[in-house]
Design goal:
It is a single chain. With 255 residues, the chain is α/β, with parallel strands linked by helices. Helix content is 36%, strand content 24%. It contains seven helices and ten strands. A six-stranded mixed β-sheet has the order 6-7-8-3-9-10, with helices on both faces. Strands 2-1-4-5 form a four-stranded antiparallel β-sheet, with helices on one face. Helix 2 crosses helix 3, helix 3 crosses helix 4 and helix 6 crosses helix 7. The relative contact order is 0.16.
Protein backbone atom coordinates (compact mmCIF):
# COMPACT_ATOMS: atom_id res chain seq x y z
CA UNK A 1 0.00 0.00 0.00
CA UNK A 2 1.28 3.46 -0.94
CA UNK A 3 0.28 6.64 0.84
CA UNK A 4 -2.71 8.62 -0.33
CA UNK A 5 -0.57 10.59 -2.79
CA UNK A 6 0.60 7.39 -4.51
CA UNK A 7 4.24 8.07 -3.60
CA UNK A 8 6.58 5.29 -2.47
CA UNK A 9 8.39 7.81 -0.25
CA UNK A 10 7.24 11.25 0.80
CA UNK A 11 9.11 13.58 3.14
CA UNK A 12 8.17 16.99 4.44
CA UNK A 13 10.45 19.10 6.61
CA UNK A 14 12.77 16.10 7.09
CA UNK A 15 15.60 17.11 9.39
CA UNK A 16 18.41 15.11 10.98
CA UNK A 17 20.79 16.56 13.55
CA UNK A 18 23.98 14.94 14.76
CA UNK A 19 25.26 16.75 17.82
CA UNK A 20 25.34 20.44 16.94
CA UNK A 21 25.46 19.72 13.20
CA UNK A 22 22.38 19.67 10.97
CA UNK A 23 22.92 16.90 8.42
CA UNK A 24 19.57 17.12 6.61
CA UNK A 25 17.92 20.52 6.41
CA UNK A 26 14.14 20.38 6.21
CA UNK A 27 13.91 18.24 3.08
CA UNK A 28 10.73 18.01 1.02
CA UNK A 29 10.88 15.18 -1.51
CA UNK A 30 8.88 12.48 -3.26
CA UNK A 31 9.98 9.14 -4.69
CA UNK A 32 7.56 7.81 -7.29
CA UNK A 33 6.66 4.08 -7.30
CA UNK A 34 7.94 1.67 -9.92
CA UNK A 35 10.77 3.96 -10.98
CA UNK A 36 14.52 4.33 -10.43
CA UNK A 37 15.26 7.52 -8.54
CA UNK A 38 18.91 8.50 -8.34
CA UNK A 39 20.19 10.32 -5.27
CA UNK A 40 23.30 12.12 -6.40
CA UNK A 41 25.77 14.44 -4.80
CA UNK A 42 29.30 14.67 -3.44
CA UNK A 43 30.50 12.55 -0.54
CA UNK A 44 29.35 13.98 2.79
CA UNK A 45 26.27 15.76 1.41
CA UNK A 46 23.81 13.63 3.42
CA UNK A 47 22.89 10.86 0.97
CA UNK A 48 23.58 7.98 3.37
CA UNK A 49 21.79 9.75 6.22
CA UNK A 50 18.70 10.20 4.06
CA UNK A 51 18.77 6.55 3.04
CA UNK A 52 19.10 5.40 6.64
CA UNK A 53 16.12 7.59 7.54
CA UNK A 54 14.03 6.00 4.79
CA UNK A 55 15.13 2.50 5.87
CA UNK A 56 14.16 3.37 9.46
CA UNK A 57 17.64 3.04 10.99
CA UNK A 58 18.54 6.71 11.48
CA UNK A 59 18.29 8.39 14.89
CA UNK A 60 17.30 12.01 15.62
CA UNK A 61 14.87 12.36 12.70
CA UNK A 62 12.22 15.08 12.78
CA UNK A 63 9.63 16.11 10.24
CA UNK A 64 7.35 13.78 8.30
CA UNK A 65 8.63 10.72 6.46
CA UNK A 66 6.20 8.16 5.00
CA UNK A 67 7.45 5.00 3.27
CA UNK A 68 5.06 2.70 1.37
CA UNK A 69 2.15 4.29 3.18
CA UNK A 70 3.58 3.86 6.70
CA UNK A 71 5.80 6.01 8.93
CA UNK A 72 9.48 5.23 8.33
CA UNK A 73 10.70 2.58 10.75
CA UNK A 74 7.29 0.94 11.15
CA UNK A 75 7.83 -2.79 11.89
CA UNK A 76 5.51 -3.77 9.04
CA UNK A 77 7.99 -2.29 6.56
CA UNK A 78 10.85 -4.66 7.41
CA UNK A 79 9.90 -7.30 4.87
CA UNK A 80 8.89 -4.71 2.25
CA UNK A 81 12.20 -2.82 2.03
CA UNK A 82 15.55 -4.11 0.83
CA UNK A 83 18.38 -1.95 2.14
CA UNK A 84 22.01 -2.21 1.01
CA UNK A 85 24.58 -0.18 2.93
CA UNK A 86 27.94 0.98 1.58
CA UNK A 87 29.70 -1.60 3.78
CA UNK A 88 28.85 -5.18 2.70
CA UNK A 89 26.63 -6.94 5.24
CA UNK A 90 27.64 -10.59 4.99
CA UNK A 91 29.08 -13.32 7.19
CA UNK A 92 32.66 -13.90 6.06
CA UNK A 93 32.86 -17.44 7.48
CA UNK A 94 29.86 -18.63 5.43
CA UNK A 95 29.73 -19.34 1.72
CA UNK A 96 27.75 -17.08 -0.55
CA UNK A 97 24.96 -19.65 -0.77
CA UNK A 98 24.94 -20.18 3.01
CA UNK A 99 24.64 -16.44 3.56
CA UNK A 100 21.65 -16.23 1.25
CA UNK A 101 20.03 -19.36 2.65
CA UNK A 102 20.37 -17.99 6.18
CA UNK A 103 18.84 -14.61 5.34
CA UNK A 104 16.08 -16.27 3.29
CA UNK A 105 15.14 -18.31 6.37
CA UNK A 106 15.17 -15.17 8.54
CA UNK A 107 12.88 -13.36 6.10
CA UNK A 108 10.41 -16.24 5.97
CA UNK A 109 10.95 -18.55 8.97
CA UNK A 110 7.61 -20.26 8.44
CA UNK A 111 8.30 -21.37 4.89
CA UNK A 112 7.59 -25.10 4.75
CA UNK A 113 9.14 -25.95 1.39
CA UNK A 114 12.94 -25.86 1.33
CA UNK A 115 12.87 -26.17 -2.46
CA UNK A 116 11.04 -22.83 -2.65
CA UNK A 117 13.78 -21.22 -0.59
CA UNK A 118 16.44 -22.79 -2.82
CA UNK A 119 14.70 -21.32 -5.87
CA UNK A 120 14.68 -17.88 -4.24
CA UNK A 121 18.37 -18.13 -3.43
CA UNK A 122 19.21 -19.38 -6.94
CA UNK A 123 17.35 -16.45 -8.52
CA UNK A 124 19.17 -13.93 -6.34
CA UNK A 125 22.53 -15.51 -7.25
CA UNK A 126 21.66 -15.28 -10.93
CA UNK A 127 20.45 -11.69 -10.58
CA UNK A 128 23.84 -10.52 -9.27
CA UNK A 129 25.92 -12.91 -11.45
CA UNK A 130 27.39 -14.88 -8.55
CA UNK A 131 26.19 -18.40 -9.37
CA UNK A 132 29.77 -19.47 -10.15
CA UNK A 133 30.88 -18.26 -6.70
CA UNK A 134 27.97 -19.74 -4.74
CA UNK A 135 30.18 -22.11 -2.75
CA UNK A 136 33.04 -19.66 -2.11
CA UNK A 137 33.54 -18.25 1.37
CA UNK A 138 32.30 -14.67 1.47
CA UNK A 139 35.45 -13.59 3.30
CA UNK A 140 37.58 -14.63 0.33
CA UNK A 141 35.67 -12.62 -2.24
CA UNK A 142 36.74 -9.28 -3.65
CA UNK A 143 35.14 -6.11 -2.32
CA UNK A 144 32.93 -5.80 -5.38
CA UNK A 145 31.79 -9.42 -5.10
CA UNK A 146 30.95 -9.00 -1.41
CA UNK A 147 28.89 -5.93 -2.31
CA UNK A 148 26.97 -8.05 -4.79
CA UNK A 149 26.28 -10.63 -2.08
CA UNK A 150 24.72 -7.84 0.01
CA UNK A 151 22.59 -6.85 -2.97
CA UNK A 152 21.50 -10.47 -3.44
CA UNK A 153 20.42 -10.57 0.22
CA UNK A 154 18.32 -7.44 -0.33
CA UNK A 155 16.64 -9.05 -3.34
CA UNK A 156 15.61 -12.23 -1.51
CA UNK A 157 12.22 -11.12 -0.27
CA UNK A 158 11.16 -9.48 -3.56
CA UNK A 159 10.96 -6.10 -1.76
CA UNK A 160 8.65 -3.34 -2.94
CA UNK A 161 11.33 -0.72 -2.27
CA UNK A 162 15.08 -1.14 -2.73
CA UNK A 163 17.29 1.43 -1.00
CA UNK A 164 20.80 1.06 -2.42
CA UNK A 165 23.66 3.13 -1.02
CA UNK A 166 26.36 3.37 -3.70
CA UNK A 167 25.96 -0.26 -4.86
CA UNK A 168 28.37 0.05 -7.79
CA UNK A 169 31.41 1.35 -5.86
CA UNK A 170 34.46 -0.76 -6.67
CA UNK A 171 32.85 -2.55 -9.60
CA UNK A 172 34.34 -2.67 -13.08
CA UNK A 173 32.44 -1.03 -15.98
CA UNK A 174 30.96 -4.33 -17.21
CA UNK A 175 29.52 -5.23 -13.80
CA UNK A 176 28.24 -1.68 -13.33
CA UNK A 177 26.43 -1.94 -16.67
CA UNK A 178 25.00 -5.35 -15.77
CA UNK A 179 23.74 -4.14 -12.38
CA UNK A 180 22.04 -1.13 -13.93
CA UNK A 181 20.39 -3.44 -16.44
CA UNK A 182 19.20 -5.51 -13.47
CA UNK A 183 17.80 -2.42 -11.73
CA UNK A 184 15.76 -1.60 -14.82
CA UNK A 185 14.47 -5.18 -15.07
CA UNK A 186 13.43 -5.09 -11.41
CA UNK A 187 11.33 -1.97 -11.93
CA UNK A 188 9.91 -3.06 -15.29
CA UNK A 189 9.15 -6.71 -14.50
CA UNK A 190 8.56 -6.70 -10.74
CA UNK A 191 7.13 -3.21 -10.29
CA UNK A 192 9.56 -2.39 -7.50
CA UNK A 193 10.79 1.10 -6.63
CA UNK A 194 14.53 1.76 -6.45
CA UNK A 195 16.27 4.62 -4.68
CA UNK A 196 19.96 4.42 -5.53
CA UNK A 197 22.71 6.79 -4.42
CA UNK A 198 25.91 7.61 -6.22
CA UNK A 199 28.53 10.30 -6.48
CA UNK A 200 29.30 9.22 -10.07
CA UNK A 201 27.38 11.58 -12.28
CA UNK A 202 27.34 9.40 -15.39
CA UNK A 203 25.06 6.97 -13.51
CA UNK A 204 22.49 9.76 -13.34
CA UNK A 205 21.70 9.20 -17.00
CA UNK A 206 20.42 5.70 -16.14
CA UNK A 207 17.77 6.95 -13.70
CA UNK A 208 14.15 7.86 -14.43
CA UNK A 209 14.33 10.74 -11.97
CA UNK A 210 17.02 12.50 -9.96
CA UNK A 211 17.38 14.08 -6.57
CA UNK A 212 20.50 16.25 -6.55
CA UNK A 213 21.87 16.92 -3.06
CA UNK A 214 24.43 19.29 -1.64
CA UNK A 215 25.17 20.19 1.99
CA UNK A 216 22.07 18.44 3.34
CA UNK A 217 19.66 20.10 0.93
CA UNK A 218 17.88 19.10 -2.28
CA UNK A 219 19.11 21.25 -5.16
CA UNK A 220 16.82 19.70 -7.75
CA UNK A 221 14.15 17.00 -8.17
CA UNK A 222 13.52 16.29 -11.85
CA UNK A 223 14.20 13.98 -14.79
CA UNK A 224 17.67 13.97 -16.39
CA UNK A 225 16.26 15.45 -19.60
CA UNK A 226 14.44 18.24 -17.76
CA UNK A 227 17.52 19.11 -15.70
CA UNK A 228 19.68 19.38 -18.80
CA UNK A 229 17.04 21.46 -20.60
CA UNK A 230 16.40 23.89 -17.76
CA UNK A 231 20.13 24.57 -17.22
CA UNK A 232 21.09 24.50 -20.90
CA UNK A 233 23.61 21.73 -20.16
CA UNK A 234 24.72 18.74 -22.21
CA UNK A 235 25.22 16.43 -19.22
CA UNK A 236 23.71 15.95 -15.77
CA UNK A 237 27.11 16.71 -14.24
CA UNK A 238 27.17 20.09 -16.00
CA UNK A 239 23.59 20.71 -14.87
CA UNK A 240 24.56 19.90 -11.27
CA UNK A 241 27.50 22.32 -11.38
CA UNK A 242 25.24 24.99 -12.87
CA UNK A 243 22.80 24.55 -9.97
CA UNK A 244 25.64 24.66 -7.43
CA UNK A 245 26.94 27.92 -8.93
CA UNK A 246 23.43 29.39 -8.92
CA UNK A 247 22.94 28.43 -5.26
CA UNK A 248 26.30 29.95 -4.31
CA UNK A 249 25.77 33.18 -6.26
CA UNK A 250 23.54 34.94 -3.68
CA UNK A 251 26.07 34.11 -0.95
CA UNK A 252 28.92 35.49 -3.01
CA UNK A 253 27.06 38.71 -3.86
CA UNK A 254 26.20 39.26 -0.21
CA UNK A 255 29.86 39.30 0.83
Amino acid sequence: MMNSSGAAVRAHGLTVRRGDRTVLRGLDLTVQPGRITGLLGPSGCGKSTLMRAIAGTQANVTGTLDVLGRPAGDPTLRARIGYVTQAPSVYDDLTVRQNLDYFAAVLDPGRARRDARRETVARALTDVDLSSHADALAGRLSGGQRSRVSLAVALLGAPELLVLDEPTVGLDPVLRRDLWNLFHRITAERGATILVSSHVMDEAERCHRLLLMRDGEILADDTPDALRARTGSETVEAAFLHLVDAADAPQESAR
